Amino acid sequence: MRAELAAGKGVGYLEDGTKIVASASVCATGVEYRRLGLPNEERLLGAGVYYGAGASEGPFTKGEDVYIVGGGNSAGQAAMHMAQFARRIFIVIRGDSLKETLSRYLLERIQAAPNIEVLTHTEVVALHGDKRLESITLADRRKGERREAGTRWLFVCIGGIPHTDWADAVGVVRDEAGYLVTGPDLSSAEKWRARWPLDRAPFYLETSVPGVFAAGDVRHGSVKRVASAVAKAPWRWRSCTVI
Predict the structure, then answer these.
(1) Angle CA(97)–CA(101)–CA(107) in degrees, nearest 5?
(2) What percent of the chain has pLDDT over 70?
(3) pLDDT range class, residue 22, cuts 50, 70, 90
(4) Tens-place pLDDT, residues 32-80
(5) What are the residues facing 23 on neighbouring strands?
(6) Which of 7, 74, 102, 188 is surrounded by the most beta carbons within 10 Å?
(7) How far apart are the first and last CA of the chain?
(8) How far apart are CA 1 and CA 186, in angstroms?
C-alpha cells in the first residue's frame, strides 16, 4: 500500500491497484504479543504457555512453581498476583536486575516477597511437554549453563509488536519500537518536519501524514489497558467490559 495527499484528500493505493480517496482514515491495527520464538510454543499456547497474566490466573497456580519472562511492570504485576497462591515464582530476565525496568513500588514489593526469586542473565530456551507444558530449559548467559525446571505455568510478558510494517512505505513516522507517532509527540520526531506539508500542526491523534489518524494500541504512548478504552466512551453510551 502507498498513500499521498492530493487536493486536501488522502489517496491510498492497494496492492491490487485499487484507488481509495477519503478525507480521513484511521489506523487501528493493534499489536500482537511478542513471542519467545521457540519450538512447541504455538502448540503449548493456552496449555501452560501464556502471553501476559492477570489476577484471574492466580488461584489456578496454587502450590505450584510459576515462571514469568520479562522485567517490565506487566511482569512485576503478574508476579504479585501469583505470589498470593503459587509456591514459588521465578522472574526470568536477561539483564542484571529489575531496577532499570520496573517501577520502584513494584520493585520494593517483589524484593519483600518471600516466594519470588529473580533469575538474572537467564532466558528460556526450550519448552517441553506433550498435551501440556511440563518443564522448561533455562540458560544462564553468563555461566553458559543449562538446566531443566519442572513447571506447568509460563507467562511471557515481554511486550508487543505493533502491526505497522506498512508505515514506512506510506510515509508514516514510527518510534523505535514501531508504534505510530501522533499529535504532540511528533514535535520530537526530526523527520516529521520535512514530511509535513500543511501550515497547521498535526491534530492530537493525527500521524505525520495529514488525514491519517491512529487509535488504540498501535499508537505511540497509548495506555494499553481495556479500562482506559472504557473510560473514554461517551457518557451517553453504556460501556461493558467482558473478561
Answers:
(1) 70
(2) 84
(3) confident
(4) 888 899 999 999 999 999 998 878 888 999 999 999 999 999 899 999 9
(5) none
(6) 102
(7) 35
(8) 23
Report how far residue 137's alpha carbon sits from residue 194's, in angstroms, rounded to the nearest whole number.
Answer: 49
Alpha helix ranges (H) inside the chain: 73-83, 104-112, 167-170, 190-195, 226-231
What is the overall mean pLDDT for the chain? 84
Residues 6+ positions from 213 with CB-CB distance below 8 Å: 24, 25, 26, 27, 182, 203, 205, 206, 207
Residue 37: all three cell numbers together:
520464538
- Where b means 16+ CB within 10 Å and e means fewer, 13-24 reads eeeeeeeeeeee
pTM score: 0.73
Helices 73-83 and 104-112: crossing angle, nearest 10°?
A: 30
> What burial letters (b/e) apply to 111-135, b meaning 16+ CB within 10 Å?
eeeebbebbbebebebbbbeeebeb
Cell of 239: 460501556
- Per-residue CA distances from 243 to 56, 78, 80, 237 (Å): 10, 17, 20, 19
DSSP letter at 10 equals E
Amino acid at 121: H
**Where do the H-state alpha helices sit in 18-118?**
73-83, 104-112
Q: Is the pLDDT confidence value at 10 over 90? A: no
